[in-house]
Amino acid sequence: MSSSSPPVGAASAAISASEKVDGFTRKSVRKAQRQKRSQGSSQFRSQGSQAELHPLPQLKDATSNEQQELFCQKLQQCCILFDFMDSVSDLKSKEIKRATLNELVEYVSTNRGVIVESAYSDIVKMISANIFRTLPPSDNPDFDPEEDEPTLEASWPHIQLVYEFFLRFLESPDFQPSIAKRYIDQKFVQQLLELFDSEDPRERDFLKTVLHRIYGKFLGLRAFIRKQINNIFLRFIYETEHFNGVAELLEILGSIINGFALPLKAEHKQFLMKVLIPMHTAKGLALFHAQLAYCVVQFLEKDTTLTEPVIRGLLKFWPKTCSQKEVMFLGEIEEILDVIEPTQFKKIEEPLFKQISKCVSSSHFQVAERALYFWNNEYILSLIEENIDKILPIMFGSLYKISKEHWNPTIVALVYNVLKTLMEMNGKLFDDLTSSYKAERQREKKKELEREELWKKLEELKLKKALEKQNSAYNMHSILSNTSDE
Amino acid sequence: MAGAAGPGTGPGAAGGDGDDSLYPIAVLIDELRNEDVQLRLNSIKKLSTIALALGVERTRTELLPFLTDTIYDEDEVLLALAEQLGNFTGLVGGPDFAHCLLPPLESLATVEETVVRDKAVESLRQISQEHTPVALEAHFVPLVKRLASGDWFTSRTSACGLFSVCYPRASNAVKAEIRQHFRSLCSDDTPMVRRAAASKLGEFAKVLELDSVKSEIVPLFTNLASDEQDSVRLLAVEACVSIAQLLSQEDLEALVMPTLRQAAEDKSWRVRYMVADKFSELQKAVGPKITLNDLIPAFQNLLKDCEAEVRAAAAHKVKELCENLPAEGRETIIMNQILPFIKELVSDTNQHVKSALASVIMGLSTILGKENTIEHLLPLFLAQLKDECPEVRLNIISNLDCVNEVIGIRQLSQSLLPAIVELAEDAKWRVRLAIIEYMPLLAGQLGMEFFDEKLNSLCMAWLVDHVYAIREAATNNLMKLVQKFGTEWAQNTIVPKVLVMANDPNYLHRMTTLFCINVLSEACGQEITTKQMLPIVLKMAGDQVANVRFNVAKSLQKIGPILDTDALQEEVKPVLQKLGQDEDMDVKYFAQEAISAVAQRLRKLDCSAKASEEPSARGADKNHFLRPRGPGEDTGKGPAHQLHGNTRDTLAQLEIAELVHFSQSGD
């Protein structure tokens, strides 16, 4: 490398111009590289040399007395972990473990009466040994789940089978939560929840089903699970802004909320207002917005009186600079309006339509368009019509302005339609607003001037006071030093 | 301005209170309630002005209750409010009334948004210092207790940051209560609170009596360090630094070290990373004896950790660790216990680890001395100079100065050159950009001769790079080189080459000439600018491409302050006037700008010429164009006296100008 480097003059020949202009390597190239990446667990270290696995006889060949003993032996054998980052080591043992895991899956799903009380301990131990691990640091510190391919779990060939086994175990008709709760306890669930941060979507998908089953079968763990999810979300919102499994956890929550008894407990309402609503501020909202909106709407379907605080919450966190998120918010608002009760609608129509009026005049046409689509929704139209006296004055100014000024012809066309609809709802009011439009603008301008005036006066006062202070200090000084100064 | 505000004439001056009729609270509160968030935010940011208008009395009785009641706003507004209130003591009537500020800040300390809460806590801490001990116990401590036993985790989290400010000034009974509250937060149910407590543990330990540290803080520390959540455990490592500083060696060994050893081998890489990251602080806190017995072995493990993150963090600390070892026996320890591990890291599989090491490894040479450096470190440097990852090579090159002091750079120059050349032609423009930035440093260390021979051509090649950022950096690089090597060097090596580019068929390259002139003219001074650069710039005013023409206008404006009146009047002005009539809008615009700048300058020169009988007496002798001028200096002042240039070099310059001219016509 050192001696063969070309002289400077040949530089441009050595590296083509297009390569030099680069800036960004093409995305497809990056993706191709990334797809191959995988990670081992961080836990896997300094285990020393492995004991080599020796194949045990098949379960189906064993007599029914021996079967139980053999089943436990196999479970213990599967507790041994292998390094999958090293693709050439322990090939034989890895294959034995894989075959054994397959056999175990088959064994618990096709046979009845094999999950006996004495096996629970070994089963949970085997599962814990395999899946509970410290997740490794992300390969790509600025991993963008929307753009980049996730890093896949290297030991998936084994872990997948362990999850498969876990699910069959939980779903088996022989499974008894009363025995299992000795092993599947709070600590177990806590570790399970931490795994939701895994970058591997396949793993998160299994975790989702597993947690859902556990929530369904272990009544004693429900409150704990909800609280821990709560904590994970709060940390995600206010501390790290990073957690891979938010969408999966929300999906589980969606069905949990569905089952809440009425009237809703204060704890659940608090979760809605203090966790789910602030969650809308997250940077990666796009990744879990569908699930989040579903949860919110579920809550509102349960208890309509929550509508006002929810909408006010959304308005408080309304995106200021991110148009993509604004479109999502508008989508969620429409979902909420779809289920809103007319009495609730009256409570929030004013602040809500002030926001919508800002959205329709957004210079980002997707935002404006999304907001204007509200007028295609029959139910929303009927709500607007019922409250046209309130809504038209709020909307009129911006609609009128856009119809004259917006750069995008599609938006202008949509606005004309909306104006027409509104006019049909109350022609008289519409005419009044049209004729008072100019006066209104002028009044606003005047108010603006008054404000400026007020602040100017306040500033002067501040200056004056500062000067007074200075002068009094100065005068004091003059008196002391006995020199007269006019 | 003088006498504009006569003192003592204002009506409200005596009382110091605002005028009620002028500023009714309703108007002001309307501003704070405005529908537009931005206006609301502006009003909050000027809250002190409002308070001033209201006077201290009404601020206390009307404004603060309003603020306390209406805390449901956008977080941005709340943040501004939390910040304002920290500096409000004077506006409510001084320290005696500081407690009036507590209610709104208390509410702010319970909101969800971390940023707001943190700011409220910061303001509360600030205000706590203004309380008298009596007021502290009467108002502040109860607030802390309320927060510490709040329902929602946010208030408890905020409380964690307030214990240490009120503890030292509280009575013994209250102190015991405060400790009790802190203890319970350390074992709070919510991990967020435990994290907040863990992060304030060290700070709190510092204000406690030594006995309490041993009997209460250490058990808390041990608990937090074995928390089920790694995010809590890793914060305990930070606290460890503060606690260790407070304890004697024996206590340290017995009470803290078992926990620290455990942290260094924690199953979570985040905790191990934290140990690596805080290593220097830990080393200083535990002292040399424990460092040798415990920390060095721990460090060796971190250097070969299974996670690259941890190895990289440890590699970053190599130099500091070595520097902080006791001088006696240092060399042996480094050679036997550190260096073998470093050698491994040079060929690590992870580029972040290698580049972390490369950023500090050069620093070892000053510690180890010349012989060890040549024998042991030099091979490592050379290996890293050939590393496949450009960042590693860059880090080595950027730290050359350390080695230069010990063994001189010549030892490296054979390997250095290929590395530099390769980086200079790297396919990634960011890499090229980085190496350009080290050129002035390299030039200084390698010397003019070596530079001319090997690197000069690189610097010129960058001027025609495909990426603008590189051309721009190359231009600035030239200026720095001229500052280093002087004008004569510039005149012989740089200027002619730059000027030749004025005839390049590519207009981007022609513009580069102008950009170079913009920065070089200052460094080169009036002489070269007037005689060599100006003619080229003026000639380019006739360029076909409008971009070039308006850059001519910009350049003329830029170099105007360096030129004398004659040049400005006779040469610059007519050209600018012509450009002012250009058909292109932008050219016209920039020409107009330049014309007014030049006119201003001419007026100035005129004045100073009239003011002084002998205009050139001081300036011309000073020969100060040789002095490189810093970017902040006012260039309008210096050359004002230089009405007549030094004629000595005129001939030589003309020759060069002609050479340039020939090569132009030959093109």
Q: Descriptors for this entry?
A:
heterodimer, A: 486 residues, mainly alpha, Leucine-rich Repeat Variant, two-stranded parallel ribbon, 2 strands, 66% helix, 1% strand, disordered N terminus, B: 667 residues, 35 helices
Please describe what this structure looks like:
The complex is a heterodimer of chains A (486) and B (667). Chain A is mainly alpha-helical. Among the domains of chain A are: 54-133 and 152-183; 303-459, Alpha Horseshoe (Leucine-rich Repeat Variant), CATH 1.25.10. Chain A is built from 22 helices and two strands. Chain A has helices at residues 11-14, 17-21, 27-35, 64-77, 91-110, 119-131, 156-171, 177-180, 186-194, 201-217, 222-240, 246-258, 266-276, 289-302, 307-316, 323-339, 342-360, 365-372, 378-386, 388-405, 409-425, 427-481, and strands at residues 38-39, 152-153. Chain A has a two-stranded parallel sheet. Chain A is elongated, with a radius of gyration of 33 Å. Residues 1-36 and 44-48 of chain A have low confidence and may be disordered. Chain B is mainly α and 667 residues long. The radius of gyration of chain B is 34 Å and the shape is flat. Mean pLDDT of chain B is 81; it is low at 1-21 and 613-667. At the A-B interface, helix 2, helix 11 and helix 22 of A face helix 3, helix 11, helix 24 and helix 26 of B.
The CATH superfamily of the domain at 303-459 in chain A is identified as Leucine-rich Repeat Variant
Sheet-strand content of chain B, in percent, reads under 5%
- Written as H for each helix and E for each strand, in order along the chain, the element string of chain A is HHHEHHHEHHHHHHHHHHHHHHHH
Low-pLDDT stretches of chain A are 1-36, 44-48
Mean pLDDT of chain A: 83
Question: Which chain pair shows the most residues in contact?
Answer: A-B, 53 and 57 residues
Choose one word for the global shape of chain A. elongated
What gyration radius of chain B follows from the Cα positions, in whole Å? 34 Å
Q: Which CATH architecture of the domain at 303-459 in chain A would you pick? A: Alpha Horseshoe
Structural class of the helix and strand makeup of chain A?
mainly alpha
GO cellular component, one term (chain B): cytosol
HEAT repeats (chain B): 24-62, 101-139, 178-216, 217-255, 256-294, 295-332, 338-376, 377-415, 416-454, 533-571, 572-610
Family (chain B): Belongs to the phosphatase 2A regulatory subunit A family.
Biased composition (Basic and acidic residues) (chain B): 610-636
